[in-house]
Every structure is written in C-alpha cells, then in structure tokens.
Design brief:
This protein has 216 residues and is mainly β. It folds into 2 domains: 66 residues, no CATH class; 125 residues, Jelly Rolls (Sandwich), CATH 2.60.120. The chain contains 3 helices and 18 strands. A 6-stranded antiparallel sheet has the order 7-8-9-16-11-14, with no helix packed on it. A hairpin with a 5-residue loop joins β8 and β9. The radius of gyration is 22 Å and the shape is elongated. The termini are far apart.
Amino acid sequence: MALPYDGYWKDLGTWNILTEEMATSQIGKGILSDDSVNTHLINELDIPATVIGVRDIVVAASPDGILVSDKASSPKIKELISDFNQPPMYEERIWGWSRVLDYAKYDDGNEMVTKRICIHEGKNSSNHYHNLCDEVWTIVRGEGELALDDYITRVKAGDIVHLPVGKKHGIKAFSELEFVEVQTGIGISDQDFTRLYFEWDDVINHFNKSKAKVIL
C-alpha cells in the first residue's frame, strides 16, 4: 500500500543546501567569529575548530576528512573524491560504534590498524574469526562476557585479550564496554571475517551443546 505525501520536501544532497536548513550556524566544538558572514561550521571531531572572518564558507570536519569550501562550490566534492578508496574512519553499528585511531603500513608489507570500539550495554558483537590479522584488545571501560573458541569468560577494564588468526571470538557488554583494538597483519580489511553466530543466545547454545567450559 502506498500513501501520497503532501508535506515539505527538500533534497539535502549538498553541503550548501544542508546549511540552508540548519537552525544554527555551528554544530560541534569550535568558534565561529562574529565577522564570518553566511558561514557554517559542522564539527564531529573531539578537537575544536576556529573559523575567523570568512564569507559564504562551509567547514565540515569528521573522522573521514575535513572540507573547507565556498558554499556555491561545495557540490564539487563528489567529483573530487570519487576516486578515494578509504574505508570509513567512524561507523555506527547496531551494537555500538567503532572509530579508527591510527593506521600504518610498513616496508615489509605488514599493516597496523588501531581502533576504539564501544559495545552498548546488553549488546554484543558477532561470534567470528579472521583469516589475515591478529588482534589485541585492551579493555578500558565496563564489563562483559567474552567468547573464545570453547570458553566463555568475564572481562573488565584493565584486561588484555590476544586473538591470533583463526581464533573464534565475540563479546557481550554487561555495562557499556570500551576497548582499544590493535590489528596487525598483511591485507587487513573489514571484509576479513567469517561470521559464525550473531545472536548471543546462539553462542551460548553452541557452547552448551559442545560441553564448553564456562567460567563464572
């Protein structure tokens, strides 16, 4: 069934059109000087941005990049970055969020990716394993339940978890849980995973059927 829509509609596909619909000239940390005319600042970063004495400008800062553009020219961004092949630096998931903090590629081909990850209270990651990268998790906040191959154990702030290539793992947060993840290997990619279970009940049922050892 389809219903007709007779309300207000505006395509917000470009930065200049988006700023026309903003209720304020600034979102996020920073300073927008009084002598900046018809200028907007949208800052998703945790560091402040300062904009002084400019006219008809949009400044947009996010973990994926920074845009400084004359408003009339801002639609060109689609063409200019069309060849970029950078994975998202910040992602929101149904279980929480993930932010890339650092990336390095070394002369021998090995790579390193550091992420800050948050699992919301009561949520869980999938149970999966990687074929190309090792991971080390440092739990920095909260408590949770960690599945490792045939074991389930508690984790809390201060714990360190080593996950070699092929190690089956998943985690559920009892309270909001944050950890720093360091991936190392060659060919690191967000597509490098084999998912086994998504629902935590399925993880528990699998371990119970296989007579897994549960540490309470």
